[in-house]
Design brief:
Length: 302
């Protein structure tokens, strides 16, 4: 890919009227020309990873990830176990802090703030505000066992968003209805199947009305016969179109059906990306070819 230098305006500061005394700040980035051309005069990405690196001690898990996700775009992330997929999601969910690089969400820095034209580490207040834009569903759903399904879904809006109980319940029932579980509102998690629990976990994330949702291998802990119902719910949410989604998955057919774009990560780097129609039929890199090959061999042997 051709790489060119271009001045890219970052953050909301640059859009402020100048006479307000606000300082105009610009940052130089090396960005692929094709990408800036596409962005020029068009939509701003909802999520933007810029040269993201993450180490745990000596181990560098992400080695410079650049990724823009457009509003409403569904991006599937595939790759071998240990390649850094979950870490990427956890950085976006503010559960891990990047070692270097920046992440922007909806035009604002996630882990940084701009102060007098300089980038400084975000404070807790900033993180708290930004966090409300992002939701995540994990492999292990971790419902509160001593609370009813309805309470499980209303807890966060009441405690975090300070929503009134009746309003939270109205919204929670709407979301439970979306995942097909409104009739389980008074049950406890132990009375539900794994697939149902995971659907509750999805409702619990949806009720916060995030702009971006991260699904991290949400079906990998489920019995095979329960996988379909959970994927169907996610497909339905995706079909709604509005929500930006990062779908970390090893369900290739699901990725092919739902994603606008597939990202293949290996060894902490994006090795290849493209529309599912190409990624799954004409993988270019040797690594993706062998990854998909191994995956198909496994499927065939199952
Ligand atoms: N909190 C942590 N401390 C130390 N190592 C970690 C931590 N989280 C993840 N890792 C390591 O980072 C690597 C990537 O992990 P992960 O992002 O979970 O990969 P994936 O989701 O692609 O399987 C693995 O080697 C994992 O052991
Ligand atoms: Mg993972």
């Amino acid at each position: 890919m051709e790489i060119g230098f271009e001045i890219v305006e970052v953050g909301s500061v640059v859009n402020e009227p100048y006479e307000g005394g606000g300082k105009l700040s610009m940052h130089m980035h090396a960005v692929p020309l094709a990408e800036t051309a596409a962005e020029r005069g068009s939509v701003r990405p909802m999520v933007r990873f810029r040269n993201i690196r993450k180490s745990f001690g000596e181990l560098e898990v992400l080695k410079g990830v650049d990724l823009d996700i457009l509003p409403g775009e569904k991006v599937a992330v595939i790759g071998p176990s240990g390649s850094g997929k979950t870490t990427l999601g956890r950085l976006l969910m503010t559960l891990e802090e990047p070692t270097s690089g920046t992440i922007e969400v909806d035009g604002e820095y996630l882990w940084h703030m701009e102060k007098r034209g300089k980038l400084v580490r975000a404070d807790e207040k900033h993180l708290h505000r930004m966090r409300s834009k992002i939701g995540m569903v994990f492999q292990h759903f971790n419902l509160f066992p001593h609370m009813t399904i309805l309470r499980n879904v209303t807890e966060a809006p009441i405690r975090v968003l300070r929503m009134r109980r009746n309003e939270a319940e109205r919204l929670a029932l709407e979301m439970l209805d979306k995942v097909g579980l409104a009739d389980k509102r008074d049950n406890y998690p132990s009375q539900l199947s794994g697939g149902e629990k995971q659907r509750v976990a999805i409702a619990r994330a949806l009720v916060m009305k995030p702009q971006v949702m991260i699904f991290d291998e949400v079906t990998s802990a489920l019995d095979p016969e329960l996988v379909g119902e959970v994927l169907a719910v996610i497909k339905e949410i995706a079909a709604d179109g509005k929500m930006t989604m990062l779908l970390i998955t090893h369900e290739m057919e699901f990725a092919r059906d739902v994603a606008d774009r597939v990202i293949f990560i290996a060894d902490g780097r994006i090795v290849e990306q493209g529309p599912p129609s190409r990624i799954f039929t004409q993988p270019e890199s040797e690594r993706l070819q062998s990854f998909l090959g191994r995956f198909r061999a496994y499927r065939a042997g199952r």
